[in-house]
Write a structure and sequence with these properties.
Oligomer: single chain
Order of helices and strands: EEEEEHEEHEHEEHEHEEEHEEEEE
Radius of gyration: 21 Å
Helix content: 10-25%
Shape: globular
Largest sheet: 6 strands, antiparallel
Structural class: alpha/beta
Number of helices: 6
Number of strands: 19
Strand order of the largest sheet: 4-3-6-1-2-5
Length: 344
């Protein structure tokens, strides 16, 4: 997997708890990416190596820099470090762009619906700019929820896009913590299944509509279920997964286990208690294994099972690209004791 070292060219404060890092593209061989993808930043904080994926907020045909937008998370080691410590001129390591929350050339009769809440706007903003710039006949409707205007990331930019592309871009906003709201500013409350049904059922080409959803699990479930009930094909619904949600029932047969890890010819032995993934315990023991998304959607933390039995938990889609003895360590749990793994 390719790695890059890029310099921070600019830092923009978007809201009280959110900043955008603009990285300077390499002069000779620019990094290629698709709107909606993410890049993994590698940071060393207090002696420990952290890797975190962040969606691009830039668009490849619109922006000269590579931009990622990072919202502070309460107790979040990496997001707080990025917001508090990084400065213009700093050099940051990163892995190559990844992710399939993207689009291909669209039928101009199609309408794209983008659904997001809070920092879930990041890949949707990238998609919006790219599609408006490259496919001017495609209609986009962005439905975006926040607590209030003050906490809305890219509010001014989105309003400007709405004014500039009035014929093919519509912005609908929801605010959950406001007492008053002008009629043309949006709706009070949260995005509901009733709103989704009301909006989508009015579409002439319902079957041809395309939907991108990014936000908390509850939002994603609400919108996805409403769309499926309206007979929107599941192949037309794209959901960005940035958190691994595990049903405790899926861990019923998981066992405590001694795990031996072979990484670049060096053997390490760790104890993995029931309920912890192999990757989590390895990182806790300062074993710097490669990883990125931590949601089972990439293959950065892939390992080959040499001894024992594992199960993968929390995957949101089937991984047909893995061999029978290959596992993603971010979502792998021991079923027997001991376990032996070779990191690929």
């Amino acid at each position: 997997m390719k790695q890059y070292t890029l310099t921070i060219q600019e830092i923009r404060k978007e809201t009280e708890d959110t900043i955008t890092l603009s990285f300077k593209q390499p002069g000779l061989r620019k990094i290629k990416y698709l709107a909606g993808q993410y890049i993994t930043l590698i940071l060393r904080i207090n002696g420990r190596k952290y890797a975190r994926p962040y969606s691009f907020s830039s668009a490849p045909t619109v922006d000269a820099t590579l931009d990622v937008t990072v919202k502070r998370v309460p107790g979040g080691v990496v997001s707080n470090y990025i917001n508090d410590e990084l400065k213009v001129g700093d050099v940051v390591e990163m892995l190559e762009p990844m992710g399939d929350f993207t689009y291909s050339i669209l039928n101009t009769t199609q309408t794209i619906f983008l659904w997001g809440v809070g920092s879930g706007i990041t890949p949707l903003y990238s998609l919006t700019k790219e599609i408006l710039n490259t496919q001017p006949n495609t209609k986009i409707h962005l439905v975006y929820g926040n607590k209030c205007k003050k906490s809305t990331i890219f509010l001014n930019e989105l309003v400007q896009l709405n004014q500039k592309f009035q014929s093919n871009f519509k912005l609908t906003q929801f605010f959950s913590q406001v007492e008053t709201l002008d009629e043309n500013e949006g709706f009070r409350g949260r995005i509901s299944s009733e709103f989704v049904t009301s909006l989508i059922s009015k579409q002439n080409n319902l079957i041809e509509s395309i939907h991108y959803i990014c936000g908390p699990k509850k939002l994603k479930d609400t919108i996805n279920n409403s769309l499926l009930e309206l007979k929107v094909p599941s192949s037309s619904i794209f959901i960005e997964e940035f958190e691994l949600v595990i049903d405790p029932q899926e861990l019923y047969d998981v066992e405590d286990s001694k795990v031996t890890i072979d990484f670049k010819g060096q053997l390490s032995e760790i104890f993995v208690p029931k309920g912890k993934s192999i990757l989590d315990v390895a990182l806790d023991n300062d074993i710097e294994l490669p990883y990125s998304c931590q949601t089972g959607n990439c293959s950065t933390c892939k390992g080959k099972l040499k001894e024992g039995q594992l199960k993968m938990v929390g995957l949101t889609k089937e991984r047909e690209d893995l061999a029978q003895d290959e596992f993603l360590l971010c979502c792998s749990y021991p079923l027997v004791n001991p376990i032996s793994i070779e990191v690929i």
